[in-house]
Amino acid sequence: KSLSRRLNTFNSTAFRVLYAPDYQTFVTNFILTDRQHPLYPIMVRRNEERKKEGIWWHVTTTNDLSKSSVVRSWCRRRLRNAFTDALKTRGFDRFGRLVDAGALEVPFRSLANVVKDKPDFQLRGSFRFHAQVPVIPAKY
Question: Which domain of life does the UniProt lineage start with (predicted)?
Answer without folding.
Answer: Eukaryota
